[in-house]
Amino acid sequence: MDDITKLMTDQLKDAYSAEKQALRAMQKMTKAASNEKLKQGIQMHMEQTEGQIERLEQALDQLGGKPGRKVCEAMRGLVEEATHEMSEHEKGTMMDVVLIAAAQRIEHYEIAAYGTMATLAKSAGHAQLGELLGKTLDEEKRMDIELSRIAETEVNSAWIKEVRAESGEQTGSANENKGGGSRKKAS
Ligand SMILES: [Fe+2]
Q1: Residue 169, CB half-sphere, CA atoms under 13 Å: how many?
Q2: Is residue 19 within 8 Å of residue 46, measured between CB atoms?
Q3: What's the rounded Cα separation, in Å, for the pair 18 and 16?
Q4: Contact predicate 113/73, CB 8 Å
Q5: pLDDT in tens for each of the 187 residues of the chain?
Q6: What separation in Å is there between the alpha carbon of 27 and the centre of ligand 1?
Q7: Measured in angstroms, how far is the CA atom of residue 142 from the centroid of ligand 1?
Q8: Which residues contact 17 (CB under 8 A, 6 or more apart)?
Q9: Neighbours of ion ligand 1 (CB under 5 A)
């Protein structure tokens, strides 16, 4: 195995681990989501991710490699942060905003990984492999756009409205205990 194939194989193994971790994280996210479109969007992407994992297996096979035990530390960090953020909130509008923030961070990481891998594959003359990775890259980009759309049209406004309504009430009743509608879990 030459250095080019070795590096590409390593990156594919890393992506394989990343997708497996992302899949588990999305499972938790769908349970935590309240907004129906957000829930459906994540569920749809979970199905896509299963296909993406198969593509990575195919890609590794083409290069004569196997998934192996490599752990993607970057995704581990992203998932750890997402899990921590999620544990700080109750289900509700703010949780949905937090879920989108975490999900988009994950998608952006994946976009970076697949963009680089697809380009390297093409540069090395693996046109078919480049195309295969390009398909996943497109799905990740579309998911990112979809998350922005859900944030813009549903989730952000619902939460901001709720926070402002609550703070308005508090100002009106001269309540000193300002929660700000954040629905933060009491520690
Ligand atoms: Fe993704």
Answers
A1: 11
A2: no
A3: 5
A4: no
A5: 899 999 999 999 999 999 999 999 999 999 999 999 999 999 999 999 999 999 999 999 999 998 889 999 999 999 999 999 999 999 999 999 999 999 999 999 999 999 999 999 999 999 999 999 999 999 999 999 999 999 999 999 999 999 999 988 776 554 444 444 455 565 5
A6: 13
A7: 9
A8: 67, 70, 71, 72, 75
A9: 110, 140
